[in-house]
Amino acid sequence: MSNLLLLHGVGLNRRMWRRCLDPLGTRHRVHALDLLGHGQASPAPERTTLADLAADVAGRMAGPAHVAGFSLGAMVAQRLALEHPELVRSLALVSSVAARSPVESAAVAERLALAERDFPAAADAAIDRWLPEDDPELATEVRATLLGNDRDSYLACYRVFATADQQLWPRLPEITAPTLAITGADDPGSTPEMTHRLADAIPGARAVIVPGVRHLLPMQAPGTLVQHILSHTTEVDHDVAAPSALHRR
């Protein structure tokens, strides 16, 4: 079995992947990490950067792994693939942002400003964007997770989320890991257009758009997401193993 590393989004934690763990575990040794400033990880300093988040992840990896990152975790995964390509067998970029337009950048800056002045209101606004109205149980769970964050760590990481796509964009053609970019068709922040931008910018990447889903793919449509991740990682593992088999002959 190959290793699979799961990285969550800003304000969430590794538990967001729990609906995916068992089916992913049929083919991989799965490890879900809490990013710096989240869950049981160390607090995030005020001037945390995307490089800091990726370096922290790299320092906790035991060796090469497929890496699936959600939202902020997808940006961390991209930076990890750029700085430590030897650690990344493949990438699955789930609900990721890419090359925000001026209008999109202004919108995320407004969301950051709201979080700085009224954290609970920002959590409610996030849930309104991320989830349909007919899933109150999941909304309650996500709101409790968001409000359970250390506010300073959350803001430090949200600043990274709000700006790091501009740093990543010119370097995406350097990524060598086989890449899947996937998002929900109804995601208003990590839009289908952004997923296609990623697939166009990263050599050999492909885009998948899941109908009828907003932002929280690992929680809203875990079966569909798992199917696409496993198809991607299985293909990569097969391609790696095939030359070895030929060499033995």
Helices and strands: which structural class? alpha/beta
> Could you tell me the strand content as a percent range?
5-15%
Radius of gyration: 17 Å
Shape: globular
Provide the CATH superfamily: Alpha/Beta hydrolase fold, catalytic domain
CATH architecture: 3-Layer(aba) Sandwich
Taken together, the total number of domains comes to 1
Taking all residues together, what is the mean pLDDT? Answer: 94
Major sheet description: 6 strands, parallel
Q: What share of the residues lie within helices?
A: 40-55%
Q: Roughly how many Å apart are the termini?
A: 23 Å
Order of helices and strands: EHEHEHEHHHHEHEHH
Reading off the top of the CATH hierarchy, the class is best stated as: Alpha Beta
Order of strands across the widest beta sheet?
A: 2-1-3-4-5-6
The tally of helices reads 10
Poorly predicted regions are 244-249
Q: What is the fold-level CATH name, i.e. the topology? A: Rossmann fold
Say how many strands there are.
Answer: 6
Please give a structural write-up:
It contains 10 helices and 6 strands, in the order E-H-E-H-E-H-E-H-H-H-H-E-H-E-H-H. The model is unreliable at 244-249 (pLDDT under 50). It is an alpha/beta fold. 52% of the residues lie in helices and 14% in strands. It has a single domain (2-248), classed as Alpha/Beta hydrolase fold, catalytic domain (Rossmann fold), CATH 3.40.50.1820. The chain starts with a strand and ends with a helix. 45% of the residues are buried.
Q: Any chance you could write out the topology, listing elements then pairs?
A:
Elements: E1 2-7, H1 18-24, E2 28-33, H2 50-60, E3 65-70, H3 72-83, E4 88-94, H4 102-117, H5 119-130, H6 136-147, H7 151-168, E5 179-184, H8 192-201, E6 206-210, H9 217-220, H10 222-248
Parallel strand pairs: 1-2, 1-3, 3-4, 4-5, 5-6
Helix pairs in contact: 1-10, 2-3, 3-7, 4-5, 4-7, 5-6
